[in-house]
């Protein structure tokens, strides 16, 4: 990476004076800046601010927009009066090709070219958008669109490279339109405020909109032009940005937007990661009062420039990775850390616009003061044939020879490149080249020539120059006179970079073509065919070539390149070093990414074609150490990832820490790129200049000794060198030895130790053998190391080799050798490599690096952590650091013995007491209390015993002093068992038996309490002590109580003591004697239950079980016998028989206990089912139907289970059980049961009846149910329509039945349906056709047989006719019908209303009887004699609707059932 500075050049217009810069734009192809000034002129400036005085265009109005045509030297100009012009620029002239005033009549607000340059889009303040076609004749309008408000901005989409480019444009009214050049225009978004910015996010094909109200909107753009809103977010911007908007916005990376909003910061929005952050101007060294008002981004160098209100241009460079996720950054890093500040440049006024030029490092800053051009000057350096040329500043070059002679050359031009050899220096700036002769061994120079040249790169060999100009390689003499040229085709591209090594020249083009030439003759001779800079596997370009270096025999070319990102074509340094092999015509690569480094320069040795040197820098986000951070560097060396080549181990540097690292490597066709050595580049050396075995050369900036340098503080660069590792002490050997050492180093690098040994076996220099021994550590060759140490005369090292062979790991053995050779860093690395952190810990201890030792023990060798702290404490004790020793003894957990020992040895008794008191460690407190007690200091001993919580010792001291009351208080307060025991023994000795028993019990020593209780006849407390004592004591106490006739206590203690046989025998014996009544039965039951229990640990035998059960039965305790049989004996059948025989009520708990466990054995399972059926039968006899149902279900007899459940009357469970069983018989039983309930008032029951009959396919029963439904509708609700529907459902279902009576029933149903239909029709037609209705009713009443009475209530038919006659005034016929009803025994009142009957009697002049129902007896025909229950209309409607619903559901439900 070259050092660089920015130089500012004032752009003076040809007319003189200063004029405000309104707009400015750089050409995309040449370094020419077009500026629109306040003098209504368009002027053109070159890259150093020099005006092209012959290229000035005068305008009729102030220019408002400038835009260069891509790939052409044409610039489009938009004026404030709406004029659109196209100006063609050539060096020395500017011509207006076309001008148009017919389209726009107001200020041009935007002007953008399509990426191909074939179309131009313009917009103005009056709302007109125009698409222009570009040709050699200028601009011609193609299509225009008219909007209702001023247009503000526009942008093209990604897919706009064809003939019909699509674009978006926005307006002040907030409308965003999508259009092309074919007349298609659509409004795609309407926002509430002015559109300030439109940008197209190519990575996600999104349009980004920023409005005046600070609303950022993203819309997705599909290939067909359809758009969809993605997200909207309100931007947080301070100040008055809400009134002026956010207009200064640019892309600063893929999906990364940057904006200058008039604040003291730059705001960034990362659309790809949905994050945002800020970059403050103070980070570039500006004051807090500065405000950013303009912004521009250079994708080639990843520079972002910001112009401020107070006249400063500050710049930052992006050094991060665009593809990295911010989540991968450390906690102390933010996205702002990806930007590093560059030097700030001041101008004379507010910077209102910024624009970057083509190529690298050209920036124009414009404002009211005019325009200033900032040009980046890279400080170059070159080494050739022992002479170095180092650029000091923009126009000065220092020449220094390897002998130390130096001189400065003031060139008078802005140097943009230089080359040197032992006789000449050539510099150039892109417009001219100068040649200087080096004289007097490099102490002076003379200018030999100065000639115009636009060469991009120049190479020098003796008196011949090679110039890369346009599409040719020119070969000239030192005066620039052309001798010949080599042309490059359009497919090959333009030659960009040249490099020469000896007689070999390398050329690379902008299209990645590589050409190598032999220039030893007059005419260059191509070496093979052209190569390409592409991946050898995918044939994809590896990037843009940044620098090249050719080796000494012209077979290889080292290449550094940049990767290109996205549509912005952002360049990012590649972490790979590429080497093109001309013999194989492929590119090999070595990636430094794993070590987080990037190569910045590479140089081949001038003689050895395999030896390559490279300078690498830390990548972004990696924190490097400074000069004063050596300790951190040393600690982190061990964490470096080793390269694949085991011999290429970093020796003096670690790529994870140091900022700059120099790497040497060998490159050949067989082994590829192999790292040979690496070391940190430390101050004052700065940059690698080249390599010339045995030295590497650098630019050094060390303070000069002369007084002028000291007074001014200027540090001039100089040439410095360092000797390669394998040549240390052998700098001045002859060429034969030098070549042998090179072969030795090469073979060591590739791991060929035998060849390495043969290369140097004749050399007697100890340094060579020492280097080889050191390399044996790298290559892990113990055998060769032994030979090397022998040649060195290193006896101790040879002994170390023999001792090292005992280690099981090769790395551990090699590490031991490395220690003897003083290669401690390698020893550390090897111990880590093989995981022998214990040996590494010992190494650090031996070196006295205790902090590292403890860190290793804490992280990797924790088994020795305490040992390490103990040894460190011993070390601190030896040097008198008592406090540190105490801390580490504590960490080693050896302080309880070591700290007292140490302080006793030092006679620091008071300090020891303070340490123990403050530490509050229980063991130490006890120890110190014991020490005080031994010294007779009882009060102090008590204090420390109390603090340590040693209650026993406190009681012991109190008893020793005969303070028994105080001892008892201590025991009662602390509840210490050991203290209670000690006190009890003392009290027993003193004859205090009662108190001794109490404290023995409190201590848990119940055997002593029992002993004393028995001895002194204290039976009242003996039982409680016995139950708490051990089994043997329980048995003794049981025998004691048995002798005294306290049998219950005896039985309990026998049982608890484990002698169950004795306990049972005693129960039986006492029970037969009947001495204790029912009490012994309870004791026996409890005993039996405990036997065989999980807690007892004793199994109860069948004989004992039978004896207990028989004993209960004989004594009438049947329920206890049953519980014992099923709980302990698993005798379920016997227990069930007892329940049956002796009427023992079975509870839920007993029923579960009487249920045998499940078994996989079919025989056992069948036996279980039989037992369950017996149990269910017993439960059924006891009227416990629910429990009986459960047991029948468990036995698999669901039908009997349902029958039991039916007897229980539990309707809810009956329905649930039927649904779960899905059995035909169960369905029928359940439905039959439900019919016995009030189903006509409960819709759910009626629905379940229909469902169960349907699922059981019991169609005859279902038909009967529908018949019953029909009768209910007639009898209770007189709803003949619903009754008819129910009969029809009955008829449908009886048709599905297969029984013998089904035909007869079906015929009867059809007859009834016929009668019902006639009566229903009569009721319906009574109002519309009363004559027909009358005829139907009379026909039904006169119809012989019983069909009518079976189908309808005859009284309803009479009532219908009577009401009809009453309504028509035919009272006589009505009266006659009433008489017929009485004659047929039909009660009148249920069918006729009293007012109607009174009207009939009054109409005939008959007296109204007090009782119309003078006929006794039941009702006739169709239930005519029955009574009708009155019901309100709401219940009638609800029941009717539910019946309809049930009927409809039944029509569609023909579910089959599965018998389980």
Give the distance, in angstroms, between the N- and C-terminal Cα atoms. Answer: 86 Å
What fraction, in percent, of the residue positions are helical? 25-40%
Sheet with most strands: 5 strands, antiparallel
User: How does the helix and strand content classify structurally?
Assistant: alpha+beta
Alpha plus pi helix count? 47
CATH architectural grouping of the domain at 380-727? 7 Propeller
Reported by name, the CATH topology of the domain at 380-727 is Methylamine Dehydrogenase, Chain H
Organism: Triparma strigata
Main location: other
Domain IFT140 first beta-propeller: 5-154, 165-376
Biased composition (Polar residues): 1448-1460
Give structural notes.
This protein has 1460 residues and is an alpha+beta fold. Among the domains are: 380-727, Methylamine Dehydrogenase, Chain H (7 Propeller); 836-919, Serine Threonine Protein Phosphatase 5, Tetratricopeptide repeat; 1257-1429, no CATH class. 38% of the residues lie in helices and 26% in strands. It is built from 47 helices and 62 strands. The strands form 15 sheets. Strands 26, 27, 28, 29 and 30 form a five-stranded antiparallel β-sheet that branches. A hairpin with a 5-residue loop joins strand 20 (215-221) and strand 21 (227-234). Helix 12 runs antiparallel to helix 13 (865-878) and helix 18 (938-948) runs antiparallel to helix 19 (951-960). It is flat and about 155 Å long. The two termini are 86 Å apart. Residues 326-333, 623-656, 705-713, 1091-1099 and 1415-1460 have low confidence and may be disordered.
């Amino acid at each position: 990476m070259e050092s660089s500075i920015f130089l500012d050049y004032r752009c003076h217009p040809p007319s003189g004076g200063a004029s405000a810069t309104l707009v400015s734009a750089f050409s995309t192809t040449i370094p020419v800046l077009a500026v629109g000034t306040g003098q209504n002129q368009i002027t053109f400036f070159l890259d150093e601010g020099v005006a092209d005085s012959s290229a000035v265009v005068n305008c009729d109005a102030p220019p408002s927009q400038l835009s260069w045509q891509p790939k052409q030297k044409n610039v489009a100009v938009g004026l404030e009066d709406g004029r659109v012009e196209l100006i063609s620029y050539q060096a020395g002239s500017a011509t207006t090709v076309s001008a148009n005033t017919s389209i726009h009549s107001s200020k041009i607000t935007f002007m953008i070219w399509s990426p191909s340059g074939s179309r131009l889009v313009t917009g103005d303040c009056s709302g007109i958008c125009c698409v222009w076609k570009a040709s050699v004749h200028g601009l011609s309008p193609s299509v225009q669109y008219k909007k209702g408000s001023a247009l503000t901005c526009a942008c093209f989409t990604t897919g706009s490279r064809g003939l019909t480019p699509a674009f978006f444009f926005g307006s002040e009214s907030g409308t965003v339109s999508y259009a092309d050049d074919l007349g298609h225009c659509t409004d795609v978004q309407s926002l509430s405020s002015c559109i300030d910015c439109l940008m197209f996010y190519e990575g996600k094909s999104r349009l980004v909109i920023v409005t005046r109200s600070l609303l950022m909107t993203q819309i997705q753009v599909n290939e067909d032009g359809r758009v969809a809103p993605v997200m909207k977010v309100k931007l947080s911007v301070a100040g008055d940005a809400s009134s002026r908007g956010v207009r200064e916005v640019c892309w600063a990376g893929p999906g990364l937007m940057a904006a200058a909003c008039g604040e003291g910061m730059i705001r960034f929005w990362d659309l790809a990661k949905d994050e945002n952050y800020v970059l403050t101007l103070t980070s570039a060294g500006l004051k807090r009062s500065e405000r950013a008002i303009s912004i521009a981004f250079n994708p080639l160098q990843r520079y972002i420039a910001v112009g401020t209100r107070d006249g400063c241009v500050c710049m930052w460079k992006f050094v991060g990775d665009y593809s990295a996720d911010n989540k991968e950054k450390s906690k102390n890093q933010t996205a702002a850390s990806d930007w590093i500040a560059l030097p700030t440049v001041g101008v004379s006024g507010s910077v209102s616009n910024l624009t970057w030029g083509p190529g690298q490092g050209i920036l124009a800053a414009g404002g009211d003061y005019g325009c200033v051009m900032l040009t980046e000057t890279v400080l170059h350096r070159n080494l050739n044939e022992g002479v170095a040329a180092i650029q000091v500043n923009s126009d000065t070059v220092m020449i220094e020879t390897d002998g130390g002679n130096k001189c400065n050359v003031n060139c008078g031009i802005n140097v943009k490149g230089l080359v040197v050899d032992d006789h000449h220096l050539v510099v150039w700036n892109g417009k001219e080249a100068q040649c200087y002769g080096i004289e007097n061994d490099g102490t002076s120079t003379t200018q030999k020539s100065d000639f115009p040249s636009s060469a991009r790169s120049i190479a020098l060999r003796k008196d011949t120059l090679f110039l890369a100009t346009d599409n040719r390689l020119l070969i000239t003499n030192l005066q620039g006179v052309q001798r010949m040229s080599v042309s490059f085709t359009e497919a090959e591209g333009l030659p960009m970079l040249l490099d020469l090594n000896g007689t070999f020249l390398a050329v690379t083009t902008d299209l990645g073509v590589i050409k190598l030439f032999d220039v030893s003759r007059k005419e260059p001779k191509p070496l093979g065919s052209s190569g390409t800079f592409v991946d050898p596997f995918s044939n994809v370009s590896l990037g843009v070539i940044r620098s090249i270096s050719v080796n000494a025999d012209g077979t290889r070319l080292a290449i550094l390149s940049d990767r290109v990102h996205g549509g912005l074509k952002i360049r990012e340094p590649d972490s790979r070093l590429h080497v093109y092999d001309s013999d194989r015509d492929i590119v090999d690569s070595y990636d430094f990414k794993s070590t987080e480094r990037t190569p910045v320069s590479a140089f081949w040795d001038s003689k050895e074609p395999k030896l390559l040197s490279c300078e690498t820098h830390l990548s972004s986000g990696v924190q490097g150490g400074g000069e004063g951070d050596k300790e951190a560097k040393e600690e982190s060396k061990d964490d470096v990832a080793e390269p694949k080549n085991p011999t290429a181990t970093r020796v003096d540097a670690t790529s994870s820490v140091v900022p700059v690292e120099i790497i040497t490597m060998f490159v050949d066709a067989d082994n590829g790129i192999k790292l040979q050595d690496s070391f940190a580049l430390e101050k004052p050396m700065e940059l690698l200049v080249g390599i010339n075995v045995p030295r590497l050369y650098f630019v050094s900036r060390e303070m000069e000794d002369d007084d002028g340098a000291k007074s001014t503080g200027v540090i001039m660069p100089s040439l410095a060198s360092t000797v390669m590792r394998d040549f240390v002490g052998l700098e001045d050997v002859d060429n034969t030895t030098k070549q042998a050492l090179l072969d030795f180093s090469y073979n060591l690098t590739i791991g060929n130790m035998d060849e390495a040994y043969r290369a140097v076996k004749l050399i007697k220099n100890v340094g060579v053998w020492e280097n080889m021994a050191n390399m044996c550590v790298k290559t892990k060759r113990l055998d060769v190391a032994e030979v090397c140490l022998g040649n060195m005369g290193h006896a101790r090292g040879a002994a170390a080799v023999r001792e090292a062979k005992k280690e099981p790991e090769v790395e551990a053995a090699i590490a031991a050798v490395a220690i003897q050779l003083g290669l401690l860093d390698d020893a550390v690395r090897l111990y880590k490599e093989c995981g022998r952190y214990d040996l590494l810990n010992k190494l650090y201890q031996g070196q006295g690096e205790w902090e590292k030792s403890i860190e290793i023990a804490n992280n990797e060798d924790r088994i020795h952590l305490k040992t390490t702290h103990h040894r460190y404490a011993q070390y601190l004790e030896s040097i008198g650091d008592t406090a540190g020793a105490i801390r580490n003894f504590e960490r080693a957990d050896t302080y309880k013995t070591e700290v007292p020992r140490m302080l006793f040895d030092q006679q620091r008794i008071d300090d020891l007491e303070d340490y123990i008191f403050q530490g509050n460690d229980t063991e130490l407190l006890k120890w110190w209390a014991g020490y005080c007690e031994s010294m007779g200091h009882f009060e102090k001993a008590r204090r420390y015993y109390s603090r340590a919580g040693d209650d026993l010792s406190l009681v012991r001291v109190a008893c020793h002093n005969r303070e028994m009351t105080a001892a008892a208080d201590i025991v009662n307060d602390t509840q210490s068992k050991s203290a209670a025991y000690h006190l009890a023994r003392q009290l027993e000795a003193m004859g205090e038996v009662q108190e001794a028993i109490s404290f023995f019990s409190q201590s848990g020593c119940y055997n002593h309490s029992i002993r004393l209780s028995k001895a002194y006849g204290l039976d009242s407390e003996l039982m409680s002590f016995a139950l708490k004592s051990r089994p043997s004591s329980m048995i003794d106490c049981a025998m004691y109580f048995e002798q005294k006739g306290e049998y219950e206590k005896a039985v309990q203690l026998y049982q608890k003591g484990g002698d169950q046989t004795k306990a049972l025998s005693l129960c039986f014996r006492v029970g037969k004697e009947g001495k204790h009544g029912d009490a012994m039965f309870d004791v026996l039951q409890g005993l039996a239950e405990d036997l065989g229990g999980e807690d007892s640990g004793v199994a109860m035998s069948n004989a004992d079980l039978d004896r207990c059960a028989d004993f209960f039965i004989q004594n009438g305790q049947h329920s206890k016998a049953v519980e014992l049989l099923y709980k302990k004996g698993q005798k379920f059948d016997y227990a069930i028989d007892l329940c049956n025989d002796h009427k023992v009520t079975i509870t839920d708990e007993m029923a579960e206990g009487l249920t045998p466990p499940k078994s996989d054995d079919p025989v056992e399972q069948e036996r279980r089912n039989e037992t369950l059926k017996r149990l269910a039968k017993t439960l059924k006899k006891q009227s416990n139907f629910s429990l009986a149902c459960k047991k029948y279900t468990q036995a698999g007899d669901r039908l009997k289970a349902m029958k039991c459940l039916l007897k229980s009357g539990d309707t809810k469970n009956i329905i649930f059980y039927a649904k779960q069983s899905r059995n035909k018989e169960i369905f029928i039983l359940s439905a039959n049961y439900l019919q016995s309930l009030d189903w006509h008032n409960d819709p759910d029951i009626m629905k379940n009846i229909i469902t169960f009959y349907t699922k059981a396919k019991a169609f005859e029963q279902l038909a009967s149910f529908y018949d019953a439904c029909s009768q209910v509708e007639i009898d209770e609700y007189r709803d003949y329509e619903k009754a008819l529907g129910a009969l029809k459902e009955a008829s449908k279902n009886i048709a599905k039945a297969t029984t013998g009576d089904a035909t007869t029933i079906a015929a009867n149903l059809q007859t009834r349906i016929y009668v019902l239909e006639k009566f229903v029709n009569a009721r319906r037609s009574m109002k519309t056709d009363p004559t027909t209705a009358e005829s139907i009713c009379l026909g039904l009443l006169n119809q012989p047989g019983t069909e009518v009475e079976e189908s309808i209530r005859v009284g309803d038919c009479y009532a219908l006719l009577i009401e009809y006659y009453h309504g028509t005034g035919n009272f006589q016929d009505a009266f006659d019908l009433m008489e017929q009803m009485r004659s047929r025994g039909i009660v009148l009142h249920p069918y006729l209303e009293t007012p109607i009957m009174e009207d009939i009697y009054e109409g005939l002049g008959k007296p109204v009887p007090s009782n119309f129902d003078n006929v006794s007896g039941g009702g006739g025909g169709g239930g005519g004699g029955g009574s009708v229950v009155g019901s309100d209309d709401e219940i009638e409607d609800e029941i009717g609707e539910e019946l309809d619903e049930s009927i409809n559901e039944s029509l569609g439900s023909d579910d089959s059932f599965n018998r389980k």
